[in-house]
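Regression test attached.
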Amino acid sequence: EAELTQSPGTLSLSPGERATLFCRASQSVSTSYLAWYQQKPGQAPRLLIYGPSTRATGIPDRFSASGSGTDFTLTISSLQSEDLAVYYCQQYLSWPYSFGQGTTLEIK
Amino acid sequence: QVTLKESGPALVKPTQTLTLTCTFSGFSLTTSGMRVSWIRQPPGKALEWLARIDWDGDIFYTTSLRTRLTISKDTSKNQVVLIMTDMDPADTATYYCARETETTFPGFDYWGQGNLVTVSS
């Protein structure tokens, strides 16, 4: 079972800044089998990006993803106040699916 | 418009069996490539995938809970049911159902609002 480790645990940035969130897998994962989610307080997770870098429906282009092998990155190019949330990466390498422990993004 | 909604008890006692129902609309589980999963989230903690059922009847379970879980579907009612036996306080969590397609794999593109289940005597 592939484990995902996200860093940092908490990220505190100001509006307009660039946010870089990391996700490291314990085994090599195809980028086609990685996804990113945003979960705002009190809400269900929302799919942001799946596959190598395909944004889900309605996701603005300031969200992007990259990476390969065991190291992956979610980038938010210019933070907005509504980006306050916990962000999760998720993989399918082999059963079962697994999620990272999340990165909390705070907006100063 | 795709929607999913979980229903079930808010409180169960230890050792009891939990039955959750996911009622969905806007897609059919008879359509090739459609899948529905159950995912849970203990308060303040990360997401944990539990089980998946596919349009063709294929079923998958997380390894650690395999012996306690049963997932099934009723395509005529657009429902997916999850049964979890021998509930324990450690199973206290919000339980979500979510849709996945072959296109968005492994991404879950639509989620229900969640059903908070507390396990307590």
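Expected vs. actual: identical. The mean pLDDT of chain A is 92.
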